[in-house]
Amino acid sequence: MNKLVIITGASSGIGAATAKAFSAAGHPLLLIARRLEPMEALKLPNALCRAVDVLDSVGFKTAIDDAQAKFGPAEILVNNAGVMMNAPAAEGETAQWDAMIDINIKGVLTGIRLVINDMIARNSGTIVNIGSIAGVKTFGNHAVYCGTKFAVHAITETIREEVSSKNVRLITIAPGMVETDLVNHTTHDAAREGWWSYAKQIGGALKPADIAEAIVWSAKLPQSVCVREMVICPTKQEP
Ligand code: NDP
């Protein structure tokens, strides 16, 4: 039997597509997000779905313990849960900055800490963190979001160096524009509409399945091969 894969943010978008792709490859899954129903609605076999906030380290750990008791050790963690609320920085709201910084950075760190010691002890394991093109270059209206994604890239590469001798891989997958609910949480109308209008102008953003395919491909390469970072954008996306 293939080994356990944990996916955060599996209730929609890239996370849900990644859950389907790993399931199709025969993996048991632990799916985590705050909303339970959309994960259960995927109706994937050998999938434990848990309504957990990635900032709730106790609930997150309990879910991992339960999944490992059922399916064995977690071989792959995909830290995908994230939020984006765009606005010019001068008009930014503290609560939205907090949500992005907490979920996008501390949520990823929490996931890593919950699995990495076992992976080190087993001399095997893969952590895929979802960064962004906004973690490689800056975009207007995205100051805080870019900050969080630059942090994800830095954290991933730093920890990769720390655990590489233990045969544990850390991978950053950095998508460009992908058609999901992500941008719809932006309450600044012009920033949200600007995203969709540019996506339309270039003939559409990527589909979540495009990113899921890259995640599964990189994670299923031999353990001796580490894709450190992959940036994947629509061909016609200019910035
Ligand atoms: P979605 O909004 O479709 O998915 C985000 C997922 O994260 C949802 O399943 C949501 O579930 C979950 N989530 C958010 N906050 C929490 C939390 N506190 N605890 C647990 N789960 C949480 O967007 P995407 O699929 O696009 O986003 C996935 C990742 O891809 C994000 O990290 C995003 O930054 C990144 N990305 C996306 C791009 C795009 O253009 N779409 C481009 C580059 C990167 P729930 O609300 O049920 O908790």
SSE order: EHEHEHEHEHEHHE
CATH superfamily: NAD(P)-binding Rossmann-like Domain
Average pLDDT rating: 97
Query: Structural class from helices and strands?
Result: alpha/beta
| Rg over CA atoms | 17 Å
List the helices and strands and how they pair.
Layout: E1 4-8, H1 13-24, E2 29-33, H2 37-40, E3 47-51, H3 57-71, E4 74-79, H4 94-122, E5 125-130, H5 143-163, E6 168-175, H6 189-201, H7 208-219, E7 229-232
Helix pairs in contact: 1-7, 3-4, 4-5
The chain binds NADPH dihydro-nicotinamide-adenine-dinucleotide phosphate.
What does this entry look like structurally?
The chain has 239 residues and is α/β, with parallel strands linked by helices. It has a single domain (4-232), classed as Rossmann fold (3-Layer(aba) Sandwich). The chain is 44% helix and 16% strand. A seven-stranded parallel β-sheet has the order 3-2-1-4-5-6-7, sandwiched between helices. Helix 1 (13-24) links the parallel strand 1 and strand 2. Helix 1 crosses helix 7 (208-219) and helix 4 runs parallel beside helix 5. The N and C termini lie far apart (42 Å).
